[in-house]
Specification:
single chain, 775 residues, alpha/beta, 5-stranded parallel β-sheet, 22 strands
Length: 775
């Protein structure tokens, strides 16, 4: 282990992997569409890996992580590293190149759904959820990991391989689809999995690896006594393996809690804490038996935000930690996968804001400089050299809008209340006159290359707004005519003017900064540019009225206005940290409230306020959840309670646990809620039935998404009919809506059109049966 006299180490837990200019995204899209060969795609991947470990080594990190690259998703990579292939994919393996078999699991095909897409620990990153069953057998396939390790070693760089820990690999998975097999305890597979980890350790040790990183993010949320006992058993065994590198176990995305005490009693050499998300007091850490003998990876630099650390405060804290754990490495709290690459390429962010920001490259330099400053400050030269590092960052006075703050302070409880649902329901029935089980979509339609180019040309000043408007209107008209032909009951304008559901509104609101190159991977080749919410939020002018009213002028059917909700705007932005999150959410909610009022005045009768991120900000541990749900619900209701009873408010949320989803849906008080539930629809419907039977189920309209919008698979009419029929038993046909589980922006029209026609046909079947008198 490193002696304090040798200085404090520096490291990060992971790095962005799409390439500084989205090289991986472009290569993936080209490969999937036949534009480049497999060898060319593999070459792009190798170049990104090689450039990354060389860059991190040159930046001065004393330890460089490896095995953080992925062609699609690192959770799926780890499942395949240990041979966890679901039975339903096995028949397709023969004859496919391993890379194409990997993409089959990640993307599926029309007759084979992919692995489920699941959000990772409150971030905007989604992973493909491995599937396990009682018969799953594990085997080691480390070729890609070892190839990268060897290439780096040839250049004089030793990588620290990053591998998902055995408990998190099992807990992040789900029960597979083996016929006749009920859900089983995933931890029952632990004894079959641990020997394969030991095999990996032996191979790495013989290869010259001195340290391996095992990520256990599942243990930053509450775990059962059985799961904690399994965690202890696993690391008692792994830490006493006969031939292995040193083991670093990290707890990313929150409070590592009881796992730290367990690890401190094992022979594991190092523990990584996400101190940027949950700052442990040094005196609390000192009370843990055995902790002083461990190397502490102090994750003081946040990996999920873009704010520069206060160097003075951070150095003081690190100095106190070093008294408890003298063998200390300055690190990031999480992988840097969740932040953009480089701040220096952003030329339009105002100086006072840019001065407070740090993207991935800057965070690496923060880690290195903090380790250097800590070494100098605690070394023999005394505190003189450290003084220059202890200067506070220059004060930044963000633009505060007095009117915005006064308006937030003036919010009253009745501003978050609408008329009772039954009153609204009757008013909406008379105004809209919709059939039972109305069919609709959730907003976005595919965007053509010409529309994306037009939006880019407008931003670059090469296209006039008038010409841009004509092109968007032509696309809107085409979308309306297609929906009318398909037979949808409530239409959408297609969102052709929007680059992203959050970024679009952020560009039109005061208090947000947006980037040109700040891309962050969501999954596979899907990337977004999260806005930076740095100041008080206000709406200078209407943001969606022009496009929605134009669409409504083309049809007699109702067209939904689509607006992103306040919680999702906050959850999917990098948010200011100088005021409580609930206050920021209320500022956004008031801006959205104004937008809804203008849409209503323009004659829009149905408005969808999307909140798919309500689940994302939910604290991983129970403490704090009640308070979070309180202000999240309040923000939504503040945004939506300024309209008349006859205006129908829809929302769109993601499922979570049974208690949370039912409570959230009911308390949001939306007239209709669409639920992301297609891959888990049976679970959701059972939950709704159970709650209804217990007298506290949903009382408003519900649209449990009946097919997966992100999948290329086209569901048939009978399948959709069965899903809607089951839903009708849970929420009754008069409150049921038919819709996909998300927007259709990423689909092709040849996939979208037959899927929607089948959905409309299924809705009409259910409608006819509901309207038939009982015999």
């Amino acid at each position: 282990m490193v002696n304090v006299a040798d200085g404090f180490g520096s490291s990060i837990l992971g790095y962005p992997r799409i390439g500084p200019h989205r090289e991986l995204k472009r290569a993936l899209d080209a490969y999937w569409h036949g534009g480049i060969s497999r060898e060319e795609l593999l070459r792009v991947g190798r170049e990104i890996q090689d450039d990354q470990f060389a860059e991190l080594h040159a930046a001065g990190l004393t330890q460089v992580p490896g095995n953080t690259f992925s062609f699609y998703d690192h959770i799926l990579d780890n499942a395949l590293l240990f041979g966890a292939v679901p039975n339903r994919f096995e028949p397709y393996r023969e004859g496919l190149h391993p890379l194409d078999f990997y993409f089959l699991m990640a993307r599926g095909r029309p007759d084979l759904p992919p692995l489920e897409l699941v959000r990772l620990f409150g971030t905007n990153y989604h992973y493909r959820q491995p599937e396990l069953d009682a018969g799953t057998e594990f085997s080691l396939h480390p070729e890609a990991l070892l190839d990268e390790f060897d290439r780096a070693k040839d250049k004089g760089i030793e990588l620290r391989p990053v591998v998902l820990g055995p408990l998190s690999l099992l807990l992040l998975s789900k029960a597979g689809q083996t016929p006749g097999e009920d859900d089983f305890d995933r931890l029952s597979l632990l004894d079959k999995l641990l020997p394969v980890y030991e095999q990996l350790f032996e191979i790495l040790a013989k290869r010259g690896s001195t340290c391996v990183q095992l990520d256990e993010p599942c243990f930053t949320s509450d775990r059962t006594p059985a799961e904690l006992a399994a965690f202890e058993r696993a690391y008692q065994r792994l830490s006493t393996a006969p031939l292995r590198p040193r083991i670093l176990v990290t707890g990313q995305y929150g409070d590592f809690g009881e796992a730290v005490r367990i690890l401190a009693q094992t022979a594991v050499e190092a523990i990584g804490l996400d101190l940027a998300s949950y700052r442990v007091r040094p005196e609390e850490l000192a009370e843990i038996p055995g902790i002083k003998r461990k190397r502490l990876y102090a994750g003081v630099i946040g990996g999920t935000n873009v704010w520069r650390a206060d160097r003075s405060v951070t150095l003081t804290y690190l100095g106190e930690l070093a008294k408890v754990c003298p063998d200390l490495v300055v690190a990031t709290g999480t992988t840097l996968l969740h932040v953009p690459y480089d701040l220096l390429v952003e030329y339009e962010i105002e100086g006072p804001v840019a001065d407070r920001l740090a993207f991935a490259k800057q965070k690496v330099l923060e880690v290195v400089s903090l380790a250097k400053a800590l070494t100098e400050g605690l070394g023999g030269s005394g505190g003189v050299e450290a003084a220059k590092w202890r200067k506070r960052p220059s004060e930044v006075h963000f633009k505060q809008k007095h009117a915005v703050r006064q308006r937030v302070y003036a919010v009253t409880a009745d501003m978050r209340e609408r008329e009772p649902y039954e009153v609204r329901r009757e008013a909406q029935r008379q105004k809209l006159n919709l059939p039972a089980v109305p069919a609709t979509t959730l907003g976005s339609f595919p965007q053509t290359a010409s529309i994306r180019q037009a939006r880019y040309d407008l931003g670059e000043g090469r296209l006039s707004y008038e010409e841009y408007r004509k092109r968007i209107e032509a696309e809107i008209e085409s979308t309306i005519r297609l929906q009318e032909d398909i037979g949808l009951d409530v239409l959408v304008h297609g969102e052709h003017e929007r680059n992203d559901m959050v970024q679009y509104f952020a560009e039109l609101l005061d208090g947000f900064a947006t980037t040109h190159f700040g891309w962050v991977q969501v999954y596979g080749s899907r990337c977004v540019r999260p806005p930076i919410l740095y100041g008080d939020v206000a709406r200078p002018k209407p943001m969606s009225v022009e496009w929605t009213t134009y669409a409504q002028s083309l049809t007699t059917k109702p067209v939904k206005g689509i607006v992103t909700g306040p919680v999702t705007m906050v959850a999917r932005s990098f948010v200011r940290q100088d005021q409580p999150l609930y206050e920021t959410a209320d500022q956004v909610a008031l801006a959205i409230r104004d937008e809804l009022t203008d849409l209503e005045k323009a004659g829009v009768a149905i408005i969808q306020v999307d909140e798919p991120a309500v689940r994302e900000l939910l604290p991983l541990r129970p403490s704090g959840r009640r308070e979070y749900l309180r202000w999240a619900v309040n923000a939504f209701r503040l945004a939506t309670s300024g309209v008349k009873p006859e205006t129908q408010i829809h929302t769109h949320i993601a499922y979570s646990s049974r208690a949370e989803i039912v409570r959230a849906i009911e308390e949001l008080d939306a007239d209709v809620t669409a639920i992301v539930a297609s891959r888990s629809i049976d679970w959701v419907l059972n939950a709704l039935k159970e709650d209804a039977a217990e007298g506290h189920g949903l009382s408003h309209g519900v649209g449990p998404g009946i097919y997966e919008s992100r999948s290329a698979r086209i569901p048939d009419i009978d399948e959709l009919d069965a899903a809607l029929t089951a839903a009708a038993e849970a929420v009754t046909p008069d409150r049921l809506w038919a819709n996909p589980d998300g927007g259709l922006k990423t689909r092709h029209y040849w996939q979208l059109e037959p899927s929607l026609r089948n959905m409309v046909a299924a809705a009409r079947r259910v409608r006819r049966r509901a309207e038939q008198p009982e015999s």
